[in-house]
Amino acid sequence: FGLYIGSQRTVGRIVEQDLQRLQPSMPELFHPKQRMDAYEGYIGSIFGFVLEQFPDTEAKALFGKMLEIYPDSPLISYHMGRMAFDQGQYQDAVFYFDKAVNKGADSPDLHFELGKTYRQKGDYVNSALSFERVLTLDDTHEEAYRELIRLSEEHEQLDDLCDRWARRYSNNRENEVLKQFLIEALHKADRFEEARKVASGS
Fold first, then answer.
1. 163-185: per-residue pLDDT in tens?
2. b/e burial code for range 70-92 (CB count within 10 A of at least 16 → b)
3. pLDDT of 64-82, one tens digit each?
4. In this structure, are residues 93 and 85 in contact, taking their beta carbons and an 8 Å threshold?
5. Are 181 and 165 in contact (CB under 8 A)?
6. Is residue 45 over pLDDT 80?
């Protein structure tokens, strides 16, 4: 038990030192989107390290302290959302992901996590909108296509999805990922002739 407490204190000192190194430099670094990317890997490694070393309640407290230091940080809010999702706290996850969006974050990964969270909450509309936002930002995001097909099947909206993607593909025939998933969606909707035409390029 003594060794456990000692290791916890050591980890706490390491994280505290990392936060102190970030704090005096440029606290505003986290909210301009163009400068956030350079720190994403570093902050992500801190979160990963804390989650490995601390129980959930202590990790959450440490992350809360990071948000106190950087209240406008979309990156920290994003990681708080991921932690809440992993713990099954979907309402909290939506809160933190939305906070990240409101603070200027607009990455495919963020909207994908938000879509997954809405799906877990049973909110089909917002889940679909989030996955569509992913495709607006990255139209080769395979997991977003898969999630939209799955949602559309579950809620009997597959024909609407096929029509929407067919229109999109007619304006972007170079997108092989869209073509692949359009064909898959058409097959699932029993629209085999249209799938054949897309596959043949006719």
1. 999 999 999 999 999 999 999 99
2. beebbbbbbbbbbbbbeeebbeb
3. 888 888 888 888 888 889 9
4. yes
5. yes
6. no
- End-to-end Cα spacing for the chain: 70
Burial 135-157 (b: 16+ CB within 10 A, else e): beebeebeebbebbbebbeeeee
Minimum mean pLDDT range among 33-47, 73-87, 102-116, 180-194 = 33-47
- The DSSP-derived string for 4-69 is HHHHHHHHHHHHHHHHHHHTTT-GGGGSSHHHHHHHHHHHHHHHHHHHHHS-HHHHHHHHHHHHHH
Residues with Cβ within 8 Å of residue 116, at least 6 apart in sequence? 85, 127, 147
- Residues 84 and 117: their CA atoms lie apart, in Å, by 10
